[in-house]
From TrEMBL:
Mn(2+) binds at H111, H113, E118, H159. This is Germin-like protein. CDD domains: cupin_OxOx. One of its GO terms (molecular function) is manganese ion binding. Residues 1-22 form the signal peptide.
Length: 223
């Protein structure tokens, strides 16, 4: 009995370490500053780690988040992402920061982060935000946020922010992954490369094929 228990513990342990390699792993050391050049790297943990002797404060630093992103695009928003690609010191630490700018009536269109929960604070303006739960409920949780208000978007769920005001709006958000990923619904469904067979989408959305043709011809802002 004890042998079986030990064996199943080992299987669980092996499975856990396998899964850890596919998700943001718990750090095995204080930090693992990402480096692209194998020759200067030491340990492998998702990315190569910079030799700790060579790590400097700059590896944990970036600047420029006081600068608004350019919102002159079709959706009227811009996400400036500070993830492991911008701060190599974030490697293995499971966190990302974004600044989101919204033109008047601009929006961050419905999207999901496959690997992160998001917590957002409004720095300027008024935002209508929301997320929708899984099937079959597909329940919408929505709220109007003012400066200083905070809202959470649970991992994997489709969510959005819309600037209701006629002034610019600004928000900052933390996300629980060094590389949260973004799937913008319209871009993935109507802007995929190559295109999804329109028959698939015509049936899925229960609309006329012309509507799908129209949507597939649009330029979807990679926000
Ligand atoms: C966001 O703003 C940056 C900096 O102004 C710009 O380089 C980038 O093209 C903008 N992205 C979109 C999707 O408009």
């Amino acid at each position: 009995m004890r042998g079986v228990h030990l064996l199943s513990s080992l299987v669980v342990l092996a499975l856990a370490s396998f899964l850890a390699s596919a998700t943001d792993p718990g750090p095995l050391q204080d930090f693992c500053v990402a480096v692209n050049d194998i020759k200067t790297g030491l340990f492998v943990n998702g990315k190569f780690c910079k030799n700790p002797d060579d790590v400097v404060a700059e590896d944990f630093f970036t600047s420029g988040l006081d600068m608004p992103g350019d919102t002159s695009n079709k959706v009227g928003s811009n996400v400036t992402t500070v993830n492991v690609d911008r701060i190599p010191g974030l490697n293995t630490l499971g966190i990302t920061l974004v600044r989101i700018d919204y033109a008047p009536y601009g929006e961050n269109p419905p999207h999901t982060h496959p690997r992160a929960t998001e917590i957002l604070v409004v720095a300027e303006g008024t935002l209508e935000v929301g997320f929708v739960t899984s099937n079959p409920q597909n329940k919408l949780f929505t709220k109007i946020l003012k400066k200083g208000d905070v809202f959470v978007f649970p991992i994997g769920l489709i969510h959005f922010q819309f600037n209701r005001g006629h002034e610019n709006a600004v928000a900052f958000a933390g996300l629980s992954s060094q590389n949260p990923g973004v799937i913008t619904i319209a871009n993935a469904v109507f802007g995929s490369n190559p295109r999804i067979n329109p028959d698939v989408l015509t049936k899925a959305f229960q609309v006329d094929k012309n509507v799908i043709d129209y949507l597939q011809k649009q330029f979807w802002v990679p926000n």
